[in-house]
Amino acid sequence: MGPVASDPRIRTRLRKPTAGRPRPRGSGTACRQPARSSHQHRSRHREQLNAHALTSAPVALGTTSTQHRRYPAGSVPARPALQPRRHPRTVKTYARDFFRIPSPRGHRTPALRVAAGIGIPLIILVLMGRTDLTIFAVFGALTGVFGRVEPHWLRLKHQTFAGILMSLSIVGGVISGGYGINGWALVGIGTLIAGVLSIVADVLRLRPSGPLFYIFAFMATASVPFEGQLWEAALTGVASVGVALVLGFMGRLWARRTEPDRQLAEAPLPAWSRIYAQAGRYVVALGLAGSIGVMSGLGHHYWAMVAAAAPISAVGASGGLVRAVYRIIGTYAGVLLTAALLTIQWPPLGLAFLIAALQFAGEVFVISHYSIALVFMTPVALMMTEFVAPGPTGTLVADRALETTIGAVIAFFVILLTTRKQRAQERSLRQTQTN
């Protein structure tokens, strides 16, 4: 033992304080504590808050801290997140939301997956000289839009289901087109398929919900002339689905190293009454939109059916009404952009890159601002037919604008007339949260 440690005065100062015994004061270095920085104070404060949260029950609004109940370790119930107070929606708030451009943060990676899923098959087909198969590749690649924010294994499951439904829709459309089914018969078959696939998609808990993409694939492939073999179209669609599945699951390779496994929890199955009611809305809206489209004599009546399906798939009745208006405005801007882009004679390879870039831009905004997304997605829907059946630009954009207006207006009134009770419940909930 050295001279310092053997000195009893120094040993007294080095002695660790025990419970109930204050630390001796003095000028020795052993008694001096380093000054805490503001960062250390904040860290200590966060630790105290976390310790308090782990030993206290959730606090209901209007209660005080003295009303907390203590729970033993390991049995603390989850603290529900406090919801922000919502104010009544007015025309002014809707207009303010419309003119607010959201940040793309958090949406670029899913958008890049979808764009790559479209661009890779298109480039391969262009290099092979099989541009007649590009429409089937695009619809197969749209499998990548499903489960964009879900955990990887759950995304793989849902995208597999969606890819199967998309492949069946492509095959069904090619078969219908091969038998010359069009007009009223095609509208009737498409309406029935939409009702059935609405139920199937809800039971499988697919997101985005509804039959929008499947009915688009079926009606478009049935309406576009195709001189090839059925197996070629089916193989192209399935291969494109496979590319989308690989891209959707590829993030798992580095997610394993950066984040723990996430729960594979699925959304609860809605009540069967709501599932059937939603399917009924699709049948009524798509049947009316397709019928009016046929009677109007326009060349792409299935666009009216697609425009009618999009607002109904929105979450909530009020959201569906807003989406119908957003779809009309976004489509009008999209057809103007399409008209400007089609003034350029795009080579096939350049058109493939352009479609992928437009899809990327649309996917960035499809969740945060539906109208901006349609500005970029409308040219994709119009330009992919340029590979197979190019036509006059003026007729193409005019049909798109008119058919979209027909479908969106019909969807607006169908939602308005069939969701009164649901919209009343939503208003009551907003008022409760406001108060």
UniProtKB/TrEMBL annotation:
InterPro entries: Memb_transporter_dom (IPR049453). Keywords: Membrane, Transmembrane, Transmembrane helix. The keyword Nucleus does not apply. The chain crosses the membrane at residues 161-179, 185-204, 234-255, 282-304, 324-344, 351-381, 401-419. Signal peptide: none annotated. Its main location: membrane. Residues 1-47, 63-82 are annotated as: Disordered. It is a multi-pass membrane protein. Residues 289-414 form the Integral membrane bound transporter domain. Residues 11-24 have a biased composition (Basic residues). It is found in: Membrane. GO terms for cellular component: membrane. This is Integral membrane bound transporter domain-containing protein.
